[in-house]
Design goal:
The longest helix has 9 residues. α2 crosses α5. The protein is built from six helices and six strands, in the order ββαββαββαααα. The chain has a four-stranded mixed sheet with strand order 2-1-4-3, sandwiched between helices. A two-stranded antiparallel ribbon has the order 5-6. β1 and β2 form a beta hairpin. The protein is α+β, with helices and mostly antiparallel strands.
């Protein structure tokens, strides 16, 4: 079954739930359907649209900022599936400061790379290779990254996650991804 994006009463993205849970929230009167999937569940006297985006009726306080774990899928999403050395299609990850030389597996040390650049760099430091990063890596902030790193994001979620729906430029930059602040629909 599909998943639904859950928004706070302020239209801030909170996370995702299975579509079945989203329907239960609708039936319990705890949320409103913002975007439907087009699928409708039928009962004898009731028809319920299966939501793709669900907004809670009451505000839920979030006491902490959720951190996104460093994973290959999340790094690729952050870097737009582009090699951070040459701009080609990235198909692997690279540690800027190699782990064999004491580097860590953290957001500021891992970037997407194409195979040729990854093989060329090997386990050397950037200063030893003459290679340069296209933009400095940084840790993503907010729940939107956790959702995006989880897989395919439906187009109707983009507005609420702050994803730019314009056609991606051949050379993505960090400024194109407005992930720091949640989007507010008016």
């Amino acid at each position: 079954m599909s998943r639904a994006l859950v928004l706070n009463a302020s239209f801030e993205a909170l996370g995702t739930v299975p579509a079945r849970r989203a329907v239960v929230l609708l039936l319990a009167g705890k949320g409103d359907c913002v975007h439907a999937t087009g699928v409708v569940l039928h009962a004898e006297r009731l028809e319920v649209p299966v939501p793709s985006v669900l907004r809670l009726r009451t505000f839920v306080s979030v006491p902490y900022r959720r951190r996104v774990a460093v994973s290959r899928k999340a790094v690729m999403a952050r870097d737009g599936h582009r090699c951070q050395y040459c701009g080609a299609r990235g198909d692997s990850i690279d540690h800027i400061h190699p782990r064999s030389r004491g580097g860590t597996h953290t957001w500021d040390n891992v970037v997407a790379a194409c195979r040729p650049c990854n093989v060329r760099k090997r386990d050397r430091l950037l200063v030893d290779t003459g290679m340069r990063l296209r933009c400095p890596p940084r840790a993503p902030i907010g729940v939107a990254w956790a959702i995006v790193a989880g897989g395919v994001v439906p187009i109707e979620w983009h507005t609420y996650l702050g994803i730019d729906t314009r056609v991606a430029a051949p050379e993505p930059s960090w400024d194109d991804l407005a992930w720091d602040e949640p989007a507010v629909a008016g």
